[in-house]
TrEMBL record:
This is Stress responsive protein. Residues 12-106 form the Stress-response A/B barrel domain. It comes from the Bacteria. Homodimer.
Length: 108
């Protein structure tokens, strides 16, 4: 939902949450973190990428431990990112380790 700041330049946010399989080795999680962070440098359409692990004390994460937020200029760039070969290679790599993923896009 846009706000009174609609006149300012906006960015499309692409929020990705991961819930890993039970018993996944921490070295695999670190490799996933590294590979996701590299996507910003490998795909120039990504304007910004930040990520972190859940530290909430509310107990509402439903097992999702990792959050990645990417920013794009527009939907065209986001769509091109989704089908980009580097992104597709990353998705293929993590599939075996994910219990669930959640993706939400919004304008900020």
């Amino acid at each position: 939902m846009k706000t009174e700041n609609d006149s300012k330049k906006t960015r499309l946010r692409h929020l990705v949450l991961f819930k890993f399989n039970e018993g996944i080795d921490i070295s695999i999680i670190r490799e996933i973190e590294k590979r996701f962070a590299l996507l910003k440098h490998e795909i120039t359409l990504v304007k910004d990428l930040e990520w972190g692990t859940n530290i909430s004390k509310e107990g509402l994460s439903n097992g999702f431990t990792h959050c990645f937020m990417l920013s794009f200029e527009d939907e065209k760039d986001r769509d091109a990112y989704i089908i980009h070969p580097k992104h597709q290679m990353f998705v293929a790599f993590i599939k075996a380790y994910l219990d669930k993923a959640c993706v939400v896009d919004y304008w900020a």
